Amino acid sequence: MTNTISITFDLATTNDQAELGFEAWIDDVKQIDIARVQGKQQIELAMPDTEGDHELRLILKGKTFAHTTLDANGAVIQDSLLIIDETAFDGVKLGYTMTRLATYVHDCNGTTETIQDRFHGQMGCNGTVSLKFTAPIYLWLLENM
Q1: Count of domains in the chain?
Q2: What is the pTM of this model?
Q3: How many CA within 13 A on the CB side of residue 10?
Q4: In CATH, what number is assigned to the domain containing residue 122?
C-alpha cells in the first residue's frame, strides 16, 4: 500500500462576480481546474508519498483589467483577488513557511516584465505560486518549519 501526502488549503475570492479561474498542480499533474472561484472552499489534494523532489503549483487565470476598479488618479479602489490560506501538509499548517518558501511569478497581467515575488496568501495577477518540497514529507517539514 502506498502512503499518501494530503495537501489542504482554503481557497476564496474577494469578488464572487469576477470570473477568476484557478488550477492546482502537483508536479506535472493537474489536480483541480475551477473555471470560476466563488465563495470560500477547502481544497484537498492527495499525492503518493514518493521519495524525491516535488512541486505544488497554484495558478490564477482569467483575470482582466475589468476585475479592478481604479479612481481618476489610477489608484486601486477595489480589486478581485484569490486568497489561499491555511495551507497544510498532512494536517501540519505551513504558516510562515509558505510565505518564506513559495514564489509567485507573474507579469502584473501584462503590464511589467515577469517578476518573482514572495507569496503572502493573495493572488491578484494571472500567475503561478510555486512551492517546492521533498518527500518523505515529515523530514521536509522538520527541516523547514
Answers
A1: 1
A2: 0.94
A3: 11
A4: 2.60.60.40
